Amino acid sequence: MKKLMLGLAALALVVSATAVQAADDASDAKNYSVEVSADVFSAYVSRGQVWNDEPVFQPNLWVEMPYGFDFNLWATMDLTDSDKSCVPDTAGKWSEFDFTLGWSAPLPEDSPIALWIGSTFYTYPQFEDDEDYDAAVKLSGNCILNPWIRFVHECDGSGNGRFDVGISHSFDLTDAISLKLSGECTYGLDDWMDKWNRTDEDGATVVKGGDAGFVDVMVMATLGWQVTDNWSVALKAGWSSLIDDDARDSADFDDVEKDIFFGGVSTAWSF
User: Fold this and answer.
1) Residues contacting 107, CB < 8 A, separation 6+
2) Which residues pair with 231 in a beta bridge?
3) Distance CA 89, CA 77 (A)
């Protein structure tokens, strides 16, 4: 696992260096873009699941490359020894690395939709030989509210899929300050919902077949300040809630939050 992590981290550095070199050599500025960001949140919440209800540090590297390819490296670190973390007592340690490689279809500039295809490889340093990967297709609408829908097939784990859908809209408050409002939810297919249907029978955890349905809803507000052309900072606040009955029962079974407010600060640098 450690060798694999080092290898993937090295790949990320190589991809970044290649993109930077392309920035120096390419004549078309649209062929490349690099953004490095860092977030500190009061909790780690993903698709209704509260992986940690205490502060986390989440850096991100995003690289847009020629021919429509992009690469993303995201990670999360617990900042406290939270008992409610998915890996308790791990303050200062990384709990997850996600590596994504994607491709955006070369559609006309006036196309009403955008198409993205990609795959993410998930690694969990605190669990030996525990990793997952998925394949995804995303359609985004180039219109009011910027609607999008993404189908994700989990090649490991449940082996089934889910649909993520969302909307967002930004308001320019001043030349440098903007407010972005967004919302999203998840619709899980039958096998994917199994993780949300666990019970305790005679002291043993039993996973029962789940029914397809909407799992969660999350809304977020982001107040951003474009400090310079390349540097920005933001305040973020969000609310996440499980709306599926089995999911809420499962959260009670795991003794984690079903509804949670969370927030944080973010900074990003792009070139």
Assistant:
1) 113, 114, 115
2) 269
3) 12
**Domain residue limits, the chain:** 2-270
**C-alpha distance across the termini of the chain, in Å:** 32
* Mode of pairing for the β-strands spanning 113-123 and 94-104: antiparallel
Please compute, for residue 78, the number of CA atoms within 13 A of its CA located in the half-sphere on the CB side. 22
**In this structure, what DSSP letter does residue 11 have?**
H
Domain 2-270 adopts which CATH fold?
Porin (2.40.160)
- The two most distant CA atoms of the chain are separated, in Å, by 67
SS3 content of the chain, % helix, strand, coil (to 5): 15, 55, 30
Q: CB of 39 within 8 A of CB of 236?
A: yes
Q: What is the pLDDT along the chain (271 residues), one digit of tens a residue?
A: 444 444 444 444 444 444 444 444 444 445 789 999 999 999 999 999 999 999 999 999 999 999 999 999 999 999 999 998 988 999 999 999 999 999 999 999 889 999 999 999 999 998 877 788 999 999 999 999 999 999 999 887 656 899 999 999 999 999 999 999 999 999 999 888 877 766 666 655 666 667 899 999 999 999 999 999 999 999 999 999 999 988 898 888 888 899 999 999 999 999 9
Backbone angles phi, psi at 139, to 5 degrees: -115, 130
| C-alpha triplet 43, 250, 161: angle, nearest 5° | 85
Torsion sign across C-alpha atoms 262, 267, 269, 270: positive
